[in-house]
Specification:
Elements: H1 2-18, H2 35-54, H3 58-64, H4 69-96, H5 100-119, H6 123-151, H7 157-185, H8 189-208, H9 218-225, H10 229-233, H11 236-266, H12 272-299, H13 304-331, H14 336-351, H15 353-364, H16 370-394
Helix pairs in contact: 2-6, 2-7, 2-8, 3-4, 4-6, 4-16, 5-6, 5-8, 6-16, 7-12, 7-15, 11-13, 11-15, 11-16, 12-14, 12-15, 13-14, 13-15
């Protein structure tokens, strides 16, 4: 009897693990009606809201634990370093183990890292807990992109990835506001809340998602065996897409968050409040641009036109900001309207790259090594994100 109960429980667990979410009702139905897309985007929104909730509380809690400036910096950077270090291993695991275990396990690991952050007794333990949370985030977010590329039709891939990108942007925008309110009660409370959101994401992924790892055929097995990282990067179009991704993140983190902040405050006299409003408006442009950019990405067969046009627009915007700043310093009369025009061009051009570049990269990577290929693509962006501020700081 006990053996029968164990078999029944095992069978129920397997059915729950493999239970598919509702698919597209009709051939031409919009992608957001696919239950699998909605499930992943919903979990992304939950995870990134949690990440945003914790963001303003990390330096506060680190300081209360006796952390110095270097320790606070370590606590802030370990989350991103975990993602950079684990992108490729996660991609390899997605190709070998499957997508669903990483989606569920990543959310659980993220929840465990935030719970450990809330319970950390000292700064060293806190930094280690942040690394664990970052590892979980890397596993979930990296695999989510692979999963959505699996389920999306090529003609809808831009819109599907755009929905996930929009969920990410909403989460990181709303989260810090909620985190600020939570920190008024207790600086540890937001981390407990994030742990709960991570657990909710894990349960949701476990119940709603099916496995999408392609079945192994002799041809796909051969592709997988040759799917080493250098083989993926040896493909010239993919390497170009990865370079464009690195450039985009460098422009965002090094250009926008560092140089633009300095120009706005030092040359145009922006106060911290005005600077926050400027960045908030650019973030809103990112969000509002996701829909049109996703639609354009799916309607144009050769996505290089969108990518190259956006990169040229970004380069022109950077040059325009530099020119307007130079004119202001030379004449002593800052042209606020010209500065805002250049910033608007910058925001709109980078918004178009959000869903288009990942869709373009997914089109280029063979199905059997999609996990590794998109991991290399994400790593290129992280290198630009981490490297640009460091390089600019040395100039």
């Amino acid at each position: 009897m006990r053996g029968s109960s164990a078999l029944l429980a095992s069978a129920a667990l397997r059915r729950a693990w493999a239970r598919p979410a509702r698919r597209l009702a009709t051939k031409d139905a919009p992608p957001w009606r696919d239950g699998r897309v909605a499930a992943v985007c919903g979990s992304t929104l939950t995870m990134m809201t949690g990440h945003g909730v914790a963001t303003p509380c990390v330096p506060l809690l680190a300081t209360t634990l006796g952390a110095g400036a270097a320790d606070v910096g370590a606590a802030l950077s370990t989350f991103g370093l975990a993602r950079l270090a684990l992108n490729v291993p996660v991609g390899l695991a997605a190709d070998s183990v499957g997508r669903k275990p990483l989606l569920v396990g990543g959310a659980l690991l993220n929840a465990a890292g935030h719970a450990a952050s809330a319970l950390a007794p000292d700064a060293t333990s806190f930094a280690a807990a942040r690394f664990v949370a970052g590892a979980g985030s890397a596993a979930y977010l990296g695999t989510a992109q692979v999963y959505l590329s699996d389920v999306a039709k090529p003609s809808q891939r831009g819109r599907v990835l755009g929905l996930n990108h929009a969920a990410l942007l909403v989460g990181v925008s709303v989260g810090p506001v909620l985190g600020g309110f939570g920190a008024e009660l207790s600086v540890r409370a937001p981390f407990y809340a994030v742990a709960g959101l991570g657990l909710l994401s894990a349960v949701h992924a476990f119940r709603a998602l099916e496995e999408t790892k392609p079945a192994t055929t002799p041809q796909k097995k051969e592709q997988k065996e040759t799917g080493r990282l250098r083989d993926v990067l040896a493909d010239a179009p993919f390497a170009s897409a990865a370079l464009a991704h690195a450039t985009t993140f460098a422009l965002r983190q090094g250009g926008r968050n560092l140089l633009l902040a300095l120009v706005a405050s030092q040359t145009f006299g922006y106060t911290p409040l005005q600077l926050g409003q400027l960045f908030g408006a650019m973030a809103m442009a990112d969000l509002l641009g996701v829909g049109p950019a996703s639609w354009l990405s799916d309607k144009i067969d050769d996505k290089r036109y969108v990518v190259c046009g956006s990169l040229v627009g970004s380069a022109a915007a950077v040059l325009a900001v530099a020119y307007v700043a130079l004119q202001a310093e030379t004449s002593g009369q800052p042209d606020q309207l010209a500065f805002l025009g250049a910033v608007s061009l910058w925001a709109l051009s980078t918004a178009a790259l959000g869903p288009t570049l990942p869709a373009y990269a997914a089109d280029l990577v063979p199905e059997a090594k999609r996990g590794l290929g998109l991991a290399a693509f994400r790593s290129a962006g992280d290198v630009g994100f981490v490297g640009a501020p460091l390089a600019l700081g040395l100039l």
